[in-house]
């Protein structure tokens, strides 16, 4: 799959001396869903704003479908839709006038049929004549997405798209993102919600202090950096772990009713069957066994902690 956005050695230093981005390199594939994770001030919004031409880079380059974001600004901006964090909407404008005006801003020909279908896809069509001020926060978020898609962009940036909305609405937004992806739109979202990236992203990028720490396929990231924990419930409490298990990183719960063994999934030196065999022959009376996989949140926290 070819890249639709190519970022090379992109840096941004503000007049205050603050380095918001530090030599970021990233290839975004056509049609993918990429999640950018990072704490506040990590550089996520600066990166998006630079690609969209809102902020000028200090050095480096960005191309969108082969066109440079500076020398071919109008061309690249027309290929991009941006849903910002803030609700930037006119209170007294109607939904219909908002999306029609946004389409016209990009010089796109009038296409009411497309806009009507867009509003239907976003469950906004019955609100098309409503003023923005009469809409709920979730509906206003949908209008922002409709605005960003009004000119039929190939790339959609979602900057914290579900910030401040309830869990039910967040899941509805995820469905919208999946639908857009199936239609061929390349989607890049920033989020604080780890489960959001875990649910919808194909690849995950982690940003901290202006540096892109890694970009990997979600499943490969969880496999390579994730941990598993073998948890065994005991039939009766024990005061200490048998000496035959001392060579393994096995922990005993405070009540003595459970032991656990944590291991890195990709560690080739780990032989779980051997550990399980030793536990079985240790004399402990086993009641139940389960395996837990670390979440994307665990991996994210560990990565950012290592960086700081």
UniProtKB/TrEMBL annotation:
The keyword Transport applies. GO terms for molecular function: ATP binding; ATP hydrolysis activity. Keywords: ATP-binding, Nucleotide-binding, Transport. Residues 5-234 form the ABC transporter domain. This is Multidrug ABC transporter ATP-binding protein. InterPro entries: AAA+_ATPase, ABC_transporter-like_ATP-bd, ABC_transporter-like_CS, ABC_transporter_ATP-binding, P-loop_NTPase.
């Amino acid at each position: 799959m070819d890249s639709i956005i190519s970022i090379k050695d992109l840096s941004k230093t503000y007049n205050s001396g603050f380095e918001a981005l530090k030599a970021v390199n990233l290839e975004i594939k056509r049609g993918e869903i990429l999640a950018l994770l990072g704490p506040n001030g990590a550089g996520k919004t600066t990166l998006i704003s630079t690609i969209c031409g809102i902020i000028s880079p200090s050095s480096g380059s960005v191309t969108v479908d082969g066109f440079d974001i500076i020398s071919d600004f109008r061309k690249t901006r027309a290929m991009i839709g941006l849903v910002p964090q803030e609700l930037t909407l006119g209170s007294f404008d109607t939904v219909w006038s908002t999306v029609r005006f946004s389409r016209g801003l990009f010089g796109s020909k009038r296409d009411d049929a497309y806009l009507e279908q867009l509003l239907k896809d976003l469950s906004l069509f019955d609100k098309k004549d409503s003023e923005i001020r009469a809409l709920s926060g979730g509906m206003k978020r949908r209008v922002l997405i409709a605005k960003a898609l009004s000119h039929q962009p190939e790339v959609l940036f979602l900057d914290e798209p579900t910030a401040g909305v309830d869990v039910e609405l967040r899941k509805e937004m995820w469905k919208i993102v999946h639908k857009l992806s199936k239609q061929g739109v390349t989607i890049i979202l920033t989020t604080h919600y780890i489960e959001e990236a875990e649910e919808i992203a194909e690849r995950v990028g982690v940003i901290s202090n202006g540096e892109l720490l890694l970009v990997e396929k979600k499943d490969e990231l969880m496999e390579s950096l994730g941990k598993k924990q073998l948890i065994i419930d005991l039939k009766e409490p024990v005061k200490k772990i048998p000496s035959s298990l001392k060579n393994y990183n096995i922990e005993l719960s405070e009540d003595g009713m459970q032991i656990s063994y944590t291991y890195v999934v990709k560690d080739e030196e780990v032989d779980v069957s051997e550990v399980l065999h030793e536990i079985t022959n240790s004399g402990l009376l086993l009641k139940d066994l389960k395996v837990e996989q670390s979440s994307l949140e665990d991996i994210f926290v560990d990565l950012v902690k290592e960086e700081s």
